């Protein structure tokens, strides 16, 4: 997937400025596709030049004008073509898992620092799960009344929720193993 596709999806959900898109990436899409603010702005300029998106200058009181972007016909066509392309299963690069395996070859005292590292990861995943659950309650309070678009958004969020729950269960298992080995 190219960043262009993630931006098109976000703009189809709701037009926005570069700043608003960057915030959306920080809050939601960024867990599935990361991009820096600079990358987003650079790709927006290219997409506008290629006719994939349209920009409208919007005056702001007391601040510089802003550009609000929306998907154009060529962008919708590009996204439609991309949707029909096969996607290969992704491989996972998980540095923490490699560190955990590597601990078998280090001194037992390394388990203490590894435990702290795993606990830090656990806190991060627990916080993200809490944000996902809060967003689910806010954005999808009545799952029986969702539009098709909302159902697809919700199923992706549910995937994120389940991924975080699975990761927390694994991290709890790792912590229990580390504690058992340290004693």
TrEMBL record:
SUPFAM superfamilies the record matches: Winged helix' DNA-binding domain (SSF46785)
Keyword Ubl conjugation: no
Domain Transcription regulator PadR N-terminal: 7-80
Transmembrane segments: none
Domain Transcription regulator PadR C-terminal stretches: 92-178
MF term (GO), any: DNA binding
Domain of life per record: Bacteria
Record's keyword terms, sorted: DNA-binding
PANTHER family the record matches: TRANSCRIPTIONAL REGULATOR YQJI (PTHR43252), TRANSCRIPTIONAL REGULATORY PROTEIN (PTHR43252:SF4)
Protein name: DNA-binding PadR family transcriptional regulator
Upper classification of the organism: Bacteria, Bacillati, Actinomycetota, Actinomycetes, Kitasatosporales
């Amino acid at each position: 997937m190219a960043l262009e596709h993630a931006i098109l999806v976000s703009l189809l959900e709701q037009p926005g400025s570069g700043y608003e898109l960057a915030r959306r990436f920080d809050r939601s899409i960024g867990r599935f596709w990361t991009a820096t603010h600079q990358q987003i702005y650079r790709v927006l300029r290219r997409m506008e030049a290629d006719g994939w998106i349209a920009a409208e200058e919007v005056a702001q009181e007391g601040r510089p004008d802003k550009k609000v972007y929306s998907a154009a016909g060529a962008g919708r066509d590009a996204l439609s073509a991309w949707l029909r392309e096969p996607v290969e299963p992704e491989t996972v690069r998980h540095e923490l898992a490699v560190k955990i395996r590597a601990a078998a070859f280090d001194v037992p005292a390394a388990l203490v620092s590894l435990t702290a590292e795993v606990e830090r990861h656990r806190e991060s995943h627990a916080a993200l799960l809490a944000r996902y659950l809060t967003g689910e309650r806010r954005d999808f309070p009545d799952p029986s009344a969702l539009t098709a678009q909302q159902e697809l958004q919700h199923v992706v969020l549910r995937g994120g929720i389940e991924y975080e729950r699975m990761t927390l269960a694994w991290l709890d298992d790792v912590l229990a193993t580390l504690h058992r080995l340290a004693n």
